[in-house]
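[SOLVED] Need 3D model of a two-part complex

Original post:
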Amino acid sequence: MTPDHALMAEILEAIQGGLTLLDHEGRILLWNAWLVEASGIEAGRARGRTLNELFPNLSDTRLPAAIADAVDLGISSSLSYTLNPNLLHLRRRDGRDLAHNVVVRPIQRGGKPFALVHLIDTTASHDRERVLRDRLNARFNAVVDGAFDAILTTDADGRIQWMNEAAVRQFGHALVEATGHRIDLLLPGAPDLARLDRPIEVEGRRRDGEPVPLEVSAAPWFNGGHRHLTLILRDLTEAKRAEGALRAAAAVSSGTNDAELLAALVRELASGLGMEHAHIAVLESGGGGALSVQAVWSGGRLGDPLDYQTQVMPCGIALAEGRCVVAANVQSAFPLDPTLVTRNFDSYVGVRFLDAQGQPMGVVCAMDPKPLANQALAERLVTAFAARVGGELARQRAEAELRALNVDLERRVEDRTSALAHATEVLKTEMQQREAAQAALAQSQKLEALGQLVGGVAHDFNNMLAAITGSYNLIERRLGDPALRDIVAHGRRAADRAAELVRHLLAFARREDLSPTVVDLATLIADVSDLLAHAAGSQVEFDLEVAPDTWPVLVDRHRLEVALLNLVVNARDAMPAGGRIRVEAKRATSSDTHPPQSTSGECSIISVQDSGTGMSAEVLARAVEPFFTTKGVGKGTGLGLAMVHGFMEQSGGRMTVASHPGEGTTISLVLPRAQGEARQEPRASGKAVPLAPPNTVLLVVDDDDQVRPVTTAYLRDLGYEVLEASTGDEALSIAQGALRLDMLLSDVVMPDMDGPNLASHLRTRYPGLPVLFMTGHADPQILRGETVLGKPFSGEELGTKIHEVLRRSEERRRGALSEAG
Amino acid sequence: MTPPAIDLTELETDALTELVNLGVGRAAASLARMVGGPVSLSVPAVKIVTYAEAAALTMRGNTGSLVAVQQRFMGVFSGTALLVFPEARSLELVRAVVGEAVPLEDVVDLEQEAVAEIGNVVLNGCLATMANMLRQRLDMSLPDVLRTTDAQLFASARREGEDGHVLFLFIDFHMREREIKGYIALLMDLPSLERLKELIDEFIQRATSTPAGLG
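Solution:
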């Protein structure tokens, strides 16, 4: 059944949508209930009117034309809300505007044209779409507007369609300003971004013209058949600044001054991070955990170093744990740190660095009143700097150690060098000493050899001379004829002189045993003064000056007398035409002598001065040399000065010679002052030889068959009973057969047995037997403690000595007896 | 390619071109109102072509997607009318009409509606005027918007079997300093085309006959 008219009318009223029918003049024939509600215009009022009358604004819209087209041309028209907003004023039930699309259809009926206007509510779908869009937008906005990076979309031509908050901030353009402009506005000189397949670096330009380094990544997308481009721009300013700081830090030459280097590093760190404060602190040696700030950059300049305790500071944590990063509110994490409070720091990044052994060495840190903008970047940068600082300081330390080591090495080398030099010196000195010693040894060996030779010769000589002298003595005694006596005396004198010479030789060749005593020089000189005067001779004026305050000296009396005699004789011989000889004795200090002695001390000087020809420098140099003489052949032995010189040395003194040609010569004997007093010794000259005590038996032993008989005869003359033997054995057997024996007189050196041996043998039979050794040699070792008479000796000397020895022995015996008794 | 089974003489082509231009002129007036600024539409050329040729013509200079507004017309000659744009151009057209004031996102959202309306205005103007001048009445359907590729376009619009032809018109839009080029394709079967041809001839006769001939 087809719906009838009433039903149709019902349907019309029930339809959700506006329906109005217009006639060919546009008058409303139908106005459905939906329209009544939506427009607020009753159907009665609407009917018969045109839409223009009800809604005057319609004349500005397309609707009237569309209605006319439908009626006149049969054209259907569709008017969308999008392109035709606000056609009719319609409201929804909730009072909101009712968005509507309009469709106009032509209707023919009974040859008459009509226009049916259909209004469709699109509010809901608009709302839904809006909600959806809002939701999407919200999510989109949350992501995009919250994004740190600038995000833009452009159309296919590169015109900016939209950009996010970050982009607005980044470039300084408001959204409306930038929209529609090509992307060149923000990225001048960028290549074709639509073709980017990976991010590139582009220089962007802010509204104020400031350039900004950006990393651009582009992604095309399609919507509704249209191509768009999304650009994400990452601000590289910070990264580039950090990169620049790292490069500058690496470029800071290691060759610069160390303090400058650290200062440069903190400056680069602070500026690279864009933070107000950066410092490098080093752990102080010696424990305590205190950090000493080596370099600090604060508030745009190099700051003063400061010390602080690490426990309350974030640097302490960094040192202990390796790093400490507080992006914000650092004061609440470290409330006890005064620096954080006074400087109002909010963020802190600190990283420790290690020494070459991997031990914590210090901390590099940066602080700022603002929170950290990019924590990861800040941490990376500080870490990199810490590594550099650690490396630098380790290198500095190594260099310092190396320098110290070098200094030490140099010092050691120096020490070693000087030690070597010293050793070389010592070695040289030793060598010199050895050479001198060797020379001295050679010399003394020479001398010894010479001495032995001479001694050997002299010994024989002595014996021969003794025989000669002895014979002459005997002859002289038994001669009555004075003329013959003179001849004998002459011969004897010659023999005496020969004996003296031999004595001199012996004295020179082998050091004679000296018997030094403390001698008063004045007395000694007085004792020999007549001898000296006699020796000077009649041609010479002899002068003697002895100071009474001369020091006593320790010297062999006899030898000194002999030496003086020698000197005077020399002086006389130096003045063949006569002159003056002056003998002087005085006290002095060693510095007065010429040349001065090295050791200071008091001494006495005896000098013999002549007014002779003097010696030239060459002669003076050789004066002391043995066998050197300027006297002619037969005159002088050349041994005099040498002997005196040797004697002085042996006595602990010196002999000095001063002479100039034409000015005479002075020879000085210097002897050190002796401790003690001088003993007076009676001189044994001029006295008669005492005769022998009665019944005294002497045993004379001498292997020299020429000397022995002379000695024996002389002694018999003196009244002694003499037994004689030529060898030790013979002596022993004779002594065995003897009834008594009072004294032994023996030579020392004999072929079978030496004198001392014989003496000790005899002393077994005759204990305490007095012994007198006669010898041409002086051998202190064998003859110690015994009485010695040096050959050659005069008869007087022999006689005197024997008497002495016997007397002493007698005294001893008596003493022993009285003790025993 | 087989030549179209029916063809227009030069005189017929000129007459049809003039008719269409009159039609789009009217559409331009309507659009001008919507746009709020001067709009000029022009149809420089008219041609009857086969489907294949039509496809080739639309493909020329275009790759990819197309947007088409489709309306059916019924009357003394029937068929399907298409206003065709490259997809990239359609949004531009809408924006050109709508203006900058509407947020881009809204334009994108409601682009379909707007394109439909614009297509509706242009096709209505074109066809209805033509029909009027030819003293005929055409029923026009409401517009549909198709997004398709050029290859599919004529395949899906085909109604009349193998011997369907396309009355192909190039159309240029000038508005808001933009120039947008598209096409109008009237798809008709042979009988409809023949009837159209007859009507055009009548129109020519009327136009070129003595004033006494008009009546």
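Edit: The two ends of chain A are 206 Å apart (CA to CA).
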